[in-house]
Amino acid sequence: LNTYRVEYAKELLRSNKCSLDKVPEKSGFTSRSAFYSAFSKIAGEFSQTLFFAMNMRDLCAQSITNMYNQF
Fold it and tell me: Which residues contact 17 (CB under 8 A, 6 or more apart)?
């Protein structure tokens, strides 16, 4: 079942059909940690790209929030 979910998640990511933070939910996982675990086991090298993208997004969001809070 997780293999099917991960393949669907990869399709969502490739097609930009939903935002990164919605991919775990849209692909049938109940938590981000379960998604990360299954994705890294099944997708292998592709998972490095996903984790990089999600970390960059989180860092950008945090930077924007910090800048906003300074004003």
Answer: 11
